Amino acid sequence: MAAAVRQDLAQLMNSSGSHKDLAGKYRQILEKAIQLSGAEQLEALKAFVEAMVNENVSLVISRQLLTDFCTHLPNLPDSTAKEIYHFTLEKIQPRVISFEEQVASIRQHLASIYEKEEDWRNAAQVLVGIPLETGQKQYNVDYKLETYLKIARLYLEDDDPVQAEAYINRASLLQNESTNEQLQIHYKVCYARVLDYRRKFIEAAQRYNELSYKTIVHESERLEALKHALHCTILASAGQQRSRMLATLFKDERCQQLAAYGILEKMYLDRIIRGNQLQEFAAMLMPHQKATRLMRVKRMSSASWTELLLNTICWSASKLYNKFTFDQNWSSLWDTCS
Protein backbone atom coordinates (compact mmCIF):
# COMPACT_ATOMS: atom_id res chain seq x y z
CA MET A 1 0.00 0.00 0.00
CA ALA A 2 2.88 2.39 0.66
CA ALA A 3 4.05 1.75 -2.90
CA ALA A 4 0.57 2.64 -4.17
CA VAL A 5 0.65 5.93 -2.24
CA ARG A 6 4.05 6.75 -3.71
CA GLN A 7 2.77 5.96 -7.22
CA ASP A 8 -0.32 8.15 -6.74
CA LEU A 9 1.88 11.02 -5.58
CA ALA A 10 4.18 10.69 -8.61
CA GLN A 11 1.22 10.76 -11.00
CA LEU A 12 -0.35 13.76 -9.28
CA MET A 13 2.88 15.77 -9.37
CA ASN A 14 2.91 15.46 -13.17
CA SER A 15 -0.75 16.39 -13.60
CA SER A 16 -2.33 19.80 -14.06
CA GLY A 17 -5.40 21.44 -12.60
CA SER A 18 -6.54 24.18 -10.27
CA HIS A 19 -4.95 24.54 -6.84
CA LYS A 20 -8.25 23.58 -5.25
CA ASP A 21 -8.58 20.36 -7.28
CA LEU A 22 -4.95 19.35 -6.74
CA ALA A 23 -5.13 20.08 -3.00
CA GLY A 24 -8.24 17.90 -2.76
CA LYS A 25 -6.48 14.99 -4.48
CA TYR A 26 -3.38 15.33 -2.28
CA ARG A 27 -5.66 15.36 0.75
CA GLN A 28 -7.23 12.06 -0.36
CA ILE A 29 -3.76 10.51 -0.64
CA LEU A 30 -2.89 11.79 2.83
CA GLU A 31 -6.04 10.21 4.26
CA LYS A 32 -5.12 6.93 2.57
CA ALA A 33 -1.63 7.04 4.10
CA ILE A 34 -2.98 7.82 7.57
CA GLN A 35 -5.30 4.80 7.45
CA LEU A 36 -2.37 2.42 6.98
CA SER A 37 -0.54 0.94 9.95
CA GLY A 38 2.95 -0.04 11.03
CA ALA A 39 5.82 0.14 8.56
CA GLU A 40 3.45 0.71 5.62
CA GLN A 41 2.04 3.84 7.26
CA LEU A 42 5.52 5.12 8.07
CA GLU A 43 6.76 4.70 4.49
CA ALA A 44 3.60 6.22 3.01
CA LEU A 45 3.83 9.30 5.24
CA LYS A 46 7.51 9.76 4.39
CA ALA A 47 6.61 9.62 0.69
CA PHE A 48 3.96 12.27 1.27
CA VAL A 49 6.47 14.56 2.99
CA GLU A 50 8.96 14.15 0.14
CA ALA A 51 6.25 15.13 -2.33
CA MET A 52 5.22 18.21 -0.35
CA VAL A 53 8.75 19.63 -0.12
CA ASN A 54 9.38 19.03 -3.82
CA GLU A 55 9.78 22.33 -5.67
CA ASN A 56 7.46 21.07 -8.43
CA VAL A 57 4.52 21.36 -6.01
CA SER A 58 3.09 24.85 -5.59
CA LEU A 59 3.84 26.47 -2.21
CA VAL A 60 0.16 27.33 -1.89
CA ILE A 61 -0.66 23.61 -1.98
CA SER A 62 2.31 22.27 -0.03
CA ARG A 63 1.89 24.71 2.87
CA GLN A 64 -1.80 23.90 3.14
CA LEU A 65 -1.24 20.14 2.96
CA LEU A 66 1.67 20.15 5.42
CA THR A 67 -0.56 22.03 7.85
CA ASP A 68 -3.20 19.30 7.45
CA PHE A 69 -0.44 16.70 7.79
CA CYS A 70 0.62 18.21 11.14
CA THR A 71 -2.91 17.97 12.53
CA HIS A 72 -2.98 14.20 11.92
CA LEU A 73 0.36 13.28 13.50
CA PRO A 74 -0.57 13.82 17.19
CA ASN A 75 -3.12 11.00 16.77
CA LEU A 76 -0.41 8.51 15.78
CA PRO A 77 1.65 6.41 18.22
CA ASP A 78 4.41 8.54 19.70
CA SER A 79 7.18 6.37 18.27
CA THR A 80 5.78 6.73 14.74
CA ALA A 81 5.06 10.43 15.11
CA LYS A 82 8.55 11.11 16.48
CA GLU A 83 10.23 9.40 13.54
CA ILE A 84 8.02 11.25 11.06
CA TYR A 85 8.67 14.59 12.77
CA HIS A 86 12.44 14.14 12.57
CA PHE A 87 12.20 12.98 8.95
CA THR A 88 10.05 15.99 8.03
CA LEU A 89 12.39 18.48 9.72
CA GLU A 90 15.34 16.97 7.86
CA LYS A 91 13.61 17.05 4.46
CA ILE A 92 12.18 20.52 4.95
CA GLN A 93 15.45 22.12 6.07
CA PRO A 94 16.64 23.28 2.61
CA ARG A 95 13.36 25.21 2.23
CA VAL A 96 12.71 25.97 5.89
CA ILE A 97 12.06 29.67 5.23
CA SER A 98 9.09 28.69 3.07
CA PHE A 99 7.54 26.51 5.80
CA GLU A 100 8.23 28.37 9.06
CA GLU A 101 4.68 28.00 10.38
CA GLN A 102 4.60 24.26 9.69
CA VAL A 103 8.07 23.77 11.20
CA ALA A 104 6.99 25.58 14.38
CA SER A 105 3.96 23.31 14.67
CA ILE A 106 6.09 20.19 14.15
CA ARG A 107 8.60 21.32 16.77
CA GLN A 108 5.87 22.04 19.31
CA HIS A 109 4.39 18.55 18.84
CA LEU A 110 7.80 16.86 18.91
CA ALA A 111 8.72 18.70 22.11
CA SER A 112 5.47 17.45 23.69
CA ILE A 113 6.49 13.86 22.95
CA TYR A 114 9.93 14.35 24.50
CA GLU A 115 8.29 15.99 27.49
CA LYS A 116 6.00 12.99 28.01
CA GLU A 117 9.11 10.82 27.92
CA GLU A 118 10.71 13.18 30.50
CA ASP A 119 13.51 13.85 28.05
CA TRP A 120 13.62 17.48 29.15
CA ARG A 121 16.78 18.57 27.33
CA ASN A 122 15.73 17.28 23.92
CA ALA A 123 12.29 18.84 24.41
CA ALA A 124 13.90 22.21 25.16
CA GLN A 125 16.36 21.98 22.27
CA VAL A 126 13.58 21.16 19.80
CA LEU A 127 11.73 24.33 20.84
CA VAL A 128 14.91 26.39 20.66
CA GLY A 129 14.95 25.56 16.94
CA ILE A 130 11.85 27.70 16.34
CA PRO A 131 13.16 31.02 14.87
CA LEU A 132 11.00 33.26 17.07
CA GLU A 133 13.07 36.41 16.46
CA THR A 134 15.08 35.71 13.31
CA GLY A 135 12.56 34.14 10.93
CA GLN A 136 10.37 35.81 8.32
CA LYS A 137 7.17 34.89 10.13
CA GLN A 138 6.01 37.42 12.73
CA TYR A 139 4.93 35.55 15.86
CA ASN A 140 2.64 37.31 18.32
CA VAL A 141 3.88 38.28 21.77
CA ASP A 142 1.91 35.61 23.64
CA TYR A 143 3.24 32.80 21.43
CA LYS A 144 6.84 33.91 21.90
CA LEU A 145 6.38 34.45 25.64
CA GLU A 146 4.75 31.05 26.12
CA THR A 147 7.49 29.31 24.13
CA TYR A 148 10.33 31.00 26.02
CA LEU A 149 8.69 30.12 29.34
CA LYS A 150 8.29 26.51 28.26
CA ILE A 151 11.96 26.31 27.23
CA ALA A 152 13.02 27.79 30.58
CA ARG A 153 10.81 25.34 32.49
CA LEU A 154 12.21 22.37 30.54
CA TYR A 155 15.79 23.41 31.27
CA LEU A 156 14.90 23.69 34.95
CA GLU A 157 13.52 20.16 34.86
CA ASP A 158 16.86 19.12 33.36
CA ASP A 159 18.69 20.86 36.25
CA ASP A 160 20.23 23.47 33.96
CA PRO A 161 19.43 26.82 35.63
CA VAL A 162 21.97 28.69 33.47
CA GLN A 163 20.10 27.94 30.23
CA ALA A 164 16.78 28.42 32.03
CA GLU A 165 17.85 31.90 33.14
CA ALA A 166 18.86 32.81 29.57
CA TYR A 167 15.34 32.08 28.33
CA ILE A 168 13.53 33.61 31.31
CA ASN A 169 15.52 36.78 30.53
CA ARG A 170 14.15 36.70 26.99
CA ALA A 171 10.68 36.26 28.41
CA SER A 172 11.27 39.24 30.70
CA LEU A 173 11.55 41.49 27.64
CA LEU A 174 8.08 40.39 26.49
CA GLN A 175 6.02 39.90 29.64
CA ASN A 176 5.09 43.59 29.98
CA GLU A 177 3.67 43.54 26.45
CA SER A 178 1.31 40.64 27.18
CA THR A 179 -2.16 41.09 28.65
CA ASN A 180 -2.61 37.34 29.18
CA GLU A 181 -2.92 37.02 32.95
CA GLN A 182 -2.27 33.27 32.90
CA LEU A 183 1.01 33.78 31.05
CA GLN A 184 1.94 36.51 33.54
CA ILE A 185 1.49 33.99 36.36
CA HIS A 186 3.53 31.37 34.49
CA TYR A 187 6.28 33.95 34.06
CA LYS A 188 6.31 34.78 37.78
CA VAL A 189 6.41 31.08 38.74
CA CYS A 190 9.21 30.32 36.31
CA TYR A 191 11.22 33.37 37.35
CA ALA A 192 10.90 32.44 41.03
CA ARG A 193 12.06 28.91 40.25
CA VAL A 194 15.06 30.19 38.30
CA LEU A 195 16.08 32.38 41.25
CA ASP A 196 15.60 29.38 43.53
CA TYR A 197 17.76 27.10 41.36
CA ARG A 198 20.37 29.85 41.02
CA ARG A 199 20.44 29.92 44.84
CA LYS A 200 19.29 33.52 45.03
CA PHE A 201 17.08 32.45 47.88
CA ILE A 202 15.85 35.74 49.32
CA GLU A 203 14.82 37.05 45.88
CA ALA A 204 13.08 33.74 45.18
CA ALA A 205 11.30 33.89 48.54
CA GLN A 206 9.94 37.36 47.78
CA ARG A 207 8.52 36.25 44.45
CA TYR A 208 7.07 33.01 45.81
CA ASN A 209 5.41 35.02 48.56
CA GLU A 210 3.94 37.42 45.99
CA LEU A 211 2.50 34.45 44.08
CA SER A 212 0.88 33.11 47.25
CA TYR A 213 -1.51 36.11 47.21
CA LYS A 214 -2.59 35.85 43.56
CA THR A 215 -6.30 34.93 43.56
CA ILE A 216 -6.11 33.66 39.97
CA VAL A 217 -3.92 30.84 41.30
CA HIS A 218 -5.65 27.83 42.85
CA GLU A 219 -5.61 27.82 46.65
CA SER A 220 -3.50 24.66 46.88
CA GLU A 221 -0.92 26.17 44.52
CA ARG A 222 -0.87 29.41 46.53
CA LEU A 223 -0.06 27.37 49.63
CA GLU A 224 2.67 25.56 47.67
CA ALA A 225 4.17 28.93 46.70
CA LEU A 226 4.06 30.00 50.35
CA LYS A 227 5.89 26.80 51.32
CA HIS A 228 8.65 27.56 48.81
CA ALA A 229 8.84 31.14 50.13
CA LEU A 230 9.36 29.79 53.64
CA HIS A 231 12.01 27.26 52.61
CA CYS A 232 13.95 29.85 50.59
CA THR A 233 13.80 32.35 53.45
CA ILE A 234 15.26 29.79 55.85
CA LEU A 235 18.04 28.98 53.36
CA ALA A 236 18.86 32.63 52.64
CA SER A 237 21.91 34.32 54.08
CA ALA A 238 21.35 36.33 57.25
CA GLY A 239 20.61 40.02 56.83
CA GLN A 240 17.90 42.67 56.89
CA GLN A 241 16.07 41.24 53.88
CA ARG A 242 15.81 37.81 55.48
CA SER A 243 14.73 39.36 58.79
CA ARG A 244 11.93 41.21 57.01
CA MET A 245 10.82 38.06 55.20
CA LEU A 246 10.88 36.08 58.46
CA ALA A 247 8.64 38.71 60.04
CA THR A 248 6.28 38.74 57.05
CA LEU A 249 5.93 34.96 57.03
CA PHE A 250 5.65 34.63 60.81
CA LYS A 251 2.71 37.06 60.79
CA ASP A 252 1.03 35.16 57.95
CA GLU A 253 -1.37 32.74 59.65
CA ARG A 254 -1.29 30.43 56.63
CA CYS A 255 2.30 29.48 57.50
CA GLN A 256 1.04 27.67 60.58
CA GLN A 257 -0.22 24.93 58.22
CA LEU A 258 3.29 24.33 56.86
CA ALA A 259 5.62 21.61 58.09
CA ALA A 260 8.55 24.03 58.43
CA TYR A 261 6.61 26.47 60.62
CA GLY A 262 8.50 25.31 63.72
CA ILE A 263 11.80 26.35 62.12
CA LEU A 264 10.29 29.70 61.11
CA GLU A 265 9.03 30.34 64.62
CA LYS A 266 12.38 29.60 66.25
CA MET A 267 14.33 31.69 63.75
CA TYR A 268 11.99 34.65 64.18
CA LEU A 269 12.01 34.40 67.98
CA ASP A 270 15.79 33.77 68.12
CA ARG A 271 15.48 30.33 69.66
CA ILE A 272 17.83 27.39 69.25
CA ILE A 273 16.84 24.91 66.54
CA ARG A 274 17.44 21.32 67.54
CA GLY A 275 19.28 18.84 65.36
CA ASN A 276 16.25 16.63 64.78
CA GLN A 277 14.29 19.65 63.49
CA LEU A 278 17.08 20.46 61.05
CA GLN A 279 17.07 16.87 59.81
CA GLU A 280 13.31 17.02 59.29
CA PHE A 281 13.68 20.30 57.42
CA ALA A 282 16.48 18.88 55.24
CA ALA A 283 14.12 16.10 54.14
CA MET A 284 11.71 18.75 52.80
CA LEU A 285 14.29 20.40 50.55
CA MET A 286 14.76 19.93 46.82
CA PRO A 287 18.06 18.41 45.62
CA HIS A 288 19.57 21.69 44.43
CA GLN A 289 18.83 23.28 47.81
CA LYS A 290 20.57 20.47 49.65
CA ALA A 291 23.51 20.65 47.26
CA THR A 292 24.03 24.29 48.17
CA ARG A 293 24.77 23.49 51.76
CA LEU A 294 26.96 20.51 50.90
CA MET A 295 29.05 22.55 48.50
CA ARG A 296 29.51 25.30 51.06
CA VAL A 297 30.65 22.78 53.65
CA LYS A 298 33.07 21.12 51.21
CA ARG A 299 34.66 24.46 50.39
CA MET A 300 35.30 25.16 54.09
CA SER A 301 38.30 23.90 55.97
CA SER A 302 37.61 21.88 59.10
CA ALA A 303 38.74 24.80 61.26
CA SER A 304 36.49 27.38 59.58
CA TRP A 305 33.48 25.05 59.75
CA THR A 306 34.08 24.47 63.48
CA GLU A 307 34.46 28.20 64.02
CA LEU A 308 31.17 28.87 62.21
CA LEU A 309 29.41 26.24 64.30
CA LEU A 310 30.79 27.65 67.56
CA ASN A 311 29.79 31.18 66.56
CA THR A 312 26.28 29.95 65.81
CA ILE A 313 26.08 28.14 69.14
CA CYS A 314 27.24 31.16 71.12
CA TRP A 315 25.01 33.59 69.19
CA SER A 316 21.94 31.42 69.70
CA ALA A 317 22.72 30.82 73.34
CA SER A 318 23.21 34.52 74.02
CA LYS A 319 19.64 35.12 72.90
CA LEU A 320 18.35 32.75 75.57
CA TYR A 321 20.59 33.21 78.57
CA ASN A 322 21.82 36.29 80.38
CA LYS A 323 24.44 34.18 82.10
CA PHE A 324 26.04 31.38 80.17
CA THR A 325 28.63 28.93 81.45
CA PHE A 326 30.38 27.34 78.47
CA ASP A 327 31.76 24.28 80.31
CA GLN A 328 28.37 23.36 81.78
CA ASN A 329 26.41 23.69 78.54
CA TRP A 330 28.91 22.63 75.86
CA SER A 331 27.77 19.00 75.63
CA SER A 332 24.05 19.69 75.37
CA LEU A 333 24.55 22.57 72.93
CA TRP A 334 26.74 20.45 70.68
CA ASP A 335 24.06 17.76 70.62
CA THR A 336 21.45 20.39 69.89
CA CYS A 337 23.22 21.97 66.95
CA SER A 338 24.87 18.91 65.39
TrEMBL record:
<protein>
    <submittedName>
        <fullName>COPS4 isoform 1</fullName>
    </submittedName>
</protein>
<dbReference type="GO" id="GO:0008180">
    <property type="term" value="C:COP9 signalosome"/>
</dbReference>
<keyword id="KW-0539">Nucleus</keyword>
<keyword id="KW-0963">Cytoplasm</keyword>
<feature type="domain" description="PSMD12/CSN4-like N-terminal">
    <location>
        <begin position="5"/>
        <end position="219"/>
    </location>
</feature>
<dbReference type="InterPro" id="IPR040134">
    <property type="entry name" value="PSMD12/CSN4"/>
</dbReference>
<dbReference type="Pfam" id="PF22241">
    <property type="entry name" value="PSMD12-CSN4_N"/>
</dbReference>
<dbReference type="GO" id="GO:0005829">
    <property type="term" value="C:cytosol"/>
</dbReference>
<dbReference type="InterPro" id="IPR054559">
    <property type="entry name" value="PSMD12-CSN4-like_N"/>
</dbReference>
